Amino acid sequence: MKKFAALFLAITLIVGCFAGCGGNAGTNPAGTGDGTQSGDAPSKTLSVALSENLTTLDPHDANNAPSYQPRNMCFDSLVESDHEGNYTPCLAETWEYSDDGTEVTFYLRKGVKWHDATDFTSADVVCTFQRLIDDPNLNVASIYWPQLKGVEAIDDYTVKIILTEPYAPIMNSLSVTAIIQAASWKAEGVEAFNKQQFVGTGPWVFDEWVDGQYVHFTKNNDYWGDFDSYYDDVYLRIVLEPSTAIAGHMNGDVQAYVASSGIASDDLQLYNGSDDKIEMVKINTGTVQYFGLQCGEDSIFSDKNARLAFTYAIDRQSIADYIFGGEASVPDSFAVESVIGYTKDTVHYDYDPEKAKEYLAKTNYNGEKIVLTSNTGTKKSKETLLAVAEMLGEAGFNIGVDVVESAALNDMRATGNYDVFLIATMQENGEPYKYFNMRVLNDAHHSDFADEELNEWIRQSNSEMDADARRKLLEKCVVRWSEDLVHVPLVRLASTYAIDYGVKGIELYQDGLFNFKYVTHE
Prior knowledge:
Blueprint: H1 2-18, E1 45-50, H2 65-74, E2 79-81, E3 87-89, E4 92-97, E5 103-108, H3 122-134, H4 139-144, E6 148-155, E7 158-163, H5 170-175, H6 182-188, H7 191-194, E8 204-210, E9 214-219, E10 233-238, H8 242-250, E11 256-258, E12 278-293, H9 304-312, H10 316-323, E13 328-329, H11 353-361, E14 369-375, H12 381-395, E15 398-404, H13 406-415, E16 420-425, H14 433-441, H15 452-463, H16 467-484, E17 487-500, E18 503-504, E19 507-508, E20 514-515, E21 520-521
Parallel strand pairs: 1-10, 1-11, 14-15, 14-16
Antiparallel strand pairs: 2-3, 4-5, 5-7, 6-7, 8-9, 9-10, 11-17, 12-16, 12-17, 13-17, 18-21, 19-20
């Protein structure tokens, strides 16, 4: 243990020498530098620092937490989720299922206006779901709606969604599906998002996204709901360097720092002396960092012995203790106890470097270089990869390390052009449907691995409407996936965020996501 403590200290010093600023905290355009206007009233402009850039403005193709924010703030869905498994009406007031569960009829809310003051009707819902049918490669379509068959308007405020089979997690899927405006889509198509000219029905109106710098929203003064924010403007500022974000928060340029996966434990000391102004909010999340292995025919990891060697070579507890400062624990699966399908029967892999060497010796590995890749938005990515590279090197692997921008890693995973990647995953509402369908059944990361029996269990779980039966199916899936070792769980994160006292409505969920839709000041 002392050896690894010294190793991690050295890594921290090395990383500190070449870590640079990845953005700036910006300024508070309506404030005085401390979040207030002249006088005692807080500024009507809120600035929040994020640790990761957006990848798209398309609400149906977003794939990281920052990119979900325009969807959350500018658009509404038919139902809303509290991320604890409960759903409430939004654009749909009520709904009912057909006897066979393949049709769902929604009765829509009247009096809702788009940001251009036109009426929301069933035509907009039809447009939304028809887009998902027409383009099944969209993120929302491929992950959440493979059973979507059709959509039809009964009248201006009644619409029916038609499925190929009963669909167990439909409420979760509805809650992440932004309803887009039919008129805008027909006039511009996807260019409405590319040209930043889209409209929504939500409490915030989109103004602009300056790539790598900020996203700006203004208040929708005619929002149909009963929410009326104190703020007139919200800026989400992209600040890749934690010390820069914290400095900006301490001097009042931003009023909250919401880093993806939380603020690193060794950066929290930078907030010393701010107790009277800033609240540190700690959440024990279901966010799990994991390694994804390329298992294609030409990859060493097509051999399970190599996957076992990789897994046994990593001292995950030391990483949790030393790199994450105890703000993490060691999981045996992506499915923690809050996730449907959680079970204690998953396979546990202890740190055993000798066993790792034995398994590696059973492969045809000849010392080819294997690159561990992560992105700048993954918490402690540099330190973790350097530490793991050292451990794998001791087991006999030849390891390189690369940390890239989020968009670059997304491209690598979309094409399978990687050896090993490190990212985080979280299960919205404790629902593993997205993970199993996108990352396992559909192999969105192009790992080139398939377990056909597991895939069939996943398909069955998608349409099993009995909750107990579905849970048992998912438990089988979780156990089998822990045996396959295509994804190797590393650590489960506890996340800390920093928010000024008085700022309310920043939702920080246990599934690791966040939402600024109802942000205000008290």
